[in-house]
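Suppose a colleague, Dr. K., hands you the sequence of a protein chain of 230 amino acids and asks what its three-dimensional shape might be. Before reaching for any lab equipment, you can write down a predicted structure in token form. Begin with the sequence itself:
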Amino acid sequence: MKNLVVLSGAGISAESGISTFRDSNGLWRNYRMEEVASPIAWERDMDLVLEFYNIRRKQLFEVYPNAGHQALLDLEEVFEVKIITQNVDDLHERAGSKNVWHLHGELKKVRSTLDENLVYEMDQWELKKGDLCDKGSQLRPHIVWFGESVPAIHHAIEIVKQADVLVIVGTSMVVYPAAGLIDYAPQDTPIYYVDPHANQMSGRAKVHCIAKKAGIGLPSLVKELKKKYS
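The predicted structure, expressed as tokens, is then:
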């Protein structure tokens, strides 16, 4: 099987009802990023940060995968599919996708503030002050905040280097380091870009732009790819 790599962003989750911080009417409009998504914010106002991520986590328990997520699962009939996502939700996994790597962490996981390798699954939506890890330190959202490194990027680069086909969906490709992943794809790798604001990427002659939402553009693209590579 050929390797098909997906780079997914907030746009695919937005169609399931997940608020994005760039939407004018989204959840983030009530907060500045530095107030809720940085180590400084955590030190300054832990209660506010916990409340913000509790709201996001509660919302995640109330939404479901959409046609875009399902279409990516259908690709597994023909390809070895690997999804690298900027999203912190678990909608790819809930749709059934088997190989998903989260660049920016996972909303349904929390980790120790003392030992970042102590990571726990969340089976409820609320994380409270006083919830401790096994070493006795406060638990925090398992999220890569602004100003923190993105350790998963190194493995993501290696995955993209092996791509026979690259699909980009629901992302503006302007947030680094994720936006730089496309540069690691082999030069002859066909690239498909599905987003309402898709446009040609500089230096890439073989970017096929599909200016549609994921739930519409992906199902038609999947049919095309399955027919081409079956």
